[in-house]
Amino acid sequence: MSEQGISKRQAVLPEESGILVIGLGLIGGSLLAALREAGYKGRCYGVDLNPNEVALGRRMGLIDDGGADPAAFLSRVSLIVLAIPVMAIAPVMAQLSRLRRHGQIVTDVGSTKSAIRDQIRAGIGQVPSWLVLGHPIAGAEKSGVEAANPMLYQHHRVILTPEADTDPGALRRIEHLWRVCGAHVEQLTVERHDEVLARTSHLPHLLAFSLVDTLARQDDRLDIFRYAAGGFRDFTRIAGSDPVMWRDIYLANREAVLEALAEFETGVSELRTAVAGSDGDAMLGIFSRASHARHYFDRLLSQKSYQAMETRNVVYRAGAGGQVRGNIRVPGDKSMSHRSIMLGALAEGVTTVEGFLEGEDSLATLQAFREMGVAIEGPQAGRVVIHGVGLHGLKQPKGALYLGNSGTSMRLFAGLMAGQTFDVTLTGDESLNRRPMGRVADPLRLMGAVIDTGEGGRPPLTIRGEQRLAGIDYDLPMASAQVKSCLLLAGMYATGDTRVREPAPTRDHTERMLTAFGYPVARHNDVAHIAGGGSLRGGFIDVPADISSAAFFLVAASITPGADLTLEHVGINPTRVGVINILREMGASIELLNEREVSGEPVADLRVRHAELHGIDIPVDQVPLAIDEFPVLFIAAANARGTTRLRDAMELRVKESDRIKAMADGLDVLGVVNTVVEDGIDIVGGRYQGGEVESLGDHRIAMAFAVAALRAEGDITIRDCANVATSFPNFPALAHEVGMQVEAVAEGA
Ligand code: S3P
């Protein structure tokens, strides 16, 4: 035997001296085929009551020997797999528990687990520690050993349902068995397994059997089958499965299946009502929620993303040098995109949005409203149509609302949810779950809301329904548009007036958009004021390009010799133009062309050309007006003559990352001299090298360092960049279009 042969055999189940499969059908046969394919060289035996199956198993090379009685083979094996119908397991287990030898372990493949466990307990008094109950989630409409397929388990899940006293060594061996076949092994409790399978497998099979049976019994069945196109075929494929096996499954998992069926009946009767009443909005709400879930359920399951984004992490390779020239339009404003969905959903009538940002953050808001029963069409090429349900028309979502990375969603939702009649829990990804929420929970409690937070005022937030809110006068302790907006939105549901005083002006999109929806918000100096009890009227919203995304290109062009770039249709709301003011003060050449107003917001095309920049002390009043743009402004500072000083920017420490620290760490790698203080940083401009930096999963840190590469003396590698999709999904493509050399590659590629 060759060296290679020995090592391969040792890698495949070294602990198993022989394997016995009891029940030589598709599942048992495929397991043996997969083991053979993987190089298992030990002896394999098969037991089946049907001698033809045994003979076929031999001819196919799956077993070395076989017969009808397990007892004949027990002395020759270390592992026994029960691949027989659920109802037949208990008697075989009784036999095995009498004849089993030391070290022998047993597993099964039954698709319901409680019934098997209960029968074994009834038969032999306990579930033995050497038995590991399991279930490979794989199958086919074909049956019998003839259909054995060595690839059946590749990339499929196998669920093991160990008991508290299952032998850990036995568990490890069974896990290894399935991994060798290419499966992903997971563990659930017996009860959870049965509930999950009732919904994901047993219910759909029941429906498929029923539909085919119903149609097959009609007089015109020949026509129905003749003309059955994709829909009927796709939906009913599984009705071709083994009837006996499925009868046993429903006998065994009766309770969980009945529960799943009752939920389904409620869903169908909702749809029946919608169809009977020609209620297009209700149908659209259900269908769009389902269609979104169907398209994205893998990603939603992994709680990673809402769109076709690589779930693996992404690394940017930003080549040193490059150009910045041309005309581009960056994606829609994130703040306005969120608000357009929120107000559109709560308005009376239909709202059409153009220019919507199809980024992870705003999609999180959109999906959350779908989960609260709002029918939303799109997004498609930035167009979204929202069928508003009115301020009091939301429905309780089925589970917690998952808001991804989006702080804006969570803080604004907190205000909106405080006014609802139902309880709701808001949660997010790892970064969002670290961010402070006391800043919204505290004032909302003053209004009468009942909110539980996680430790230290962090998410998840659970907001209790049915609370009467009363307006308050509130002095914001920090300049935060999110907190201000949260309170104004809650103010719509409160009795009396809500007044919010800000220590410095912050973005006022909420106030402007509420006004555009016919809900007036007054402004007296530093106080925004809303009266409760009004209503919103749906309409049309044109979301301009996001100045926060444009900022990366404003800096890119400013620092690159020969650059001349026009950014089209950018929102230039005075509460957002800090980045333009600061760059101009540093010497940048930025022209505002074609200024106009759309949907109550000022917009312009921005022409930016290369200029020599110099360091400045950033005016404190500009800090809230440029709060999201500092990462890339730090790159401008690194390319400016002299020192740039930022103070009074504590808020940067509680964004998607601690942006002062994240940027300083990266600047250190590049050799840019900087000094960090509690509320800011000093950056000394000059030449800098390339290197590898971490974005810490913060989109704006990632894009800022991609811009830095334009003037670096070496390439910059930026790690952990998948979250750029939260605000700027096509950043690498647009950067490439203007002449930058940014390439997004999957981690490890
Ligand atoms: C936002 C407000 C700002 C900003 C965030 C979006 C908004 O947050 O940083 O990206 O849409 O209201 P703060 O309110 O925490 O300053």
TrEMBL record:
Q: Where is the Prephenate/arogenate dehydrogenase domain?
A: 17-305
Where does the protein principally reside?
cytoplasm
Q: Which GO terms describe its cellular component?
A: cytoplasm
Identify the residues that bind 3-phosphoshikimate.
334-335, 339, 480, 482, 628, 655
Give the residues the record marks as binding phosphoenolpyruvate: 334, 407, 435, 482, 659, 700
Family matches, as CDD domains: EPSP_synthase (cd01556)
Q: Which catalysed reactions does the entry list for this protein?
A: prephenate + NAD(+) = 3-(4-hydroxyphenyl)pyruvate + CO2 + NADH; 3-phosphoshikimate + phosphoenolpyruvate = 5-O-(1-carboxyvinyl)-3-phosphoshikimate + phosphate
Q: Which Pfam families match?
A: EPSP_synthase, PDH_C, PDH_N
Active-site residues from the entry:
628 (proton acceptor)
Pathway given in the UniProt record: Metabolic intermediate biosynthesis; chorismate biosynthesis; chorismate from D-erythrose 4-phosphate and phosphoenolpyruvate: step 6/7; Amino-acid biosynthesis; L-tyrosine biosynthesis; (4-hydroxyphenyl)pyruvate from prephenate (NAD(+) route): step 1/1
Which ranges does the record mark as transmembrane? Answer: 17-35, 73-94
What keywords were assigned to this record? Answer: Amino-acid biosynthesis, Aromatic amino acid biosynthesis, Cytoplasm, Membrane, NAD, Oxidoreductase, Transferase, Transmembrane, Transmembrane helix, Tyrosine biosynthesis
Where does the protein end up?
Cytoplasm
What HAMAP family does the record tag this protein with? EPSP_synth
What's this chain's function? Catalyzes the transfer of the enolpyruvyl moiety of phosphoenolpyruvate (PEP) to the 5-hydroxyl of shikimate-3-phosphate (S3P) to produce enolpyruvyl shikimate-3-phosphate and inorganic phosphate.
| Subunit structure comment from the entry | Monomer.
Q: Name the NCBIfam families on file.
A: aroA, PRK14806.1
Which family would the database say this protein is a member of? Answer: Belongs to the prephenate/arogenate dehydrogenase family.
Name of the protein: 3-phosphoshikimate 1-carboxyvinyltransferase
Originating gene: aroA
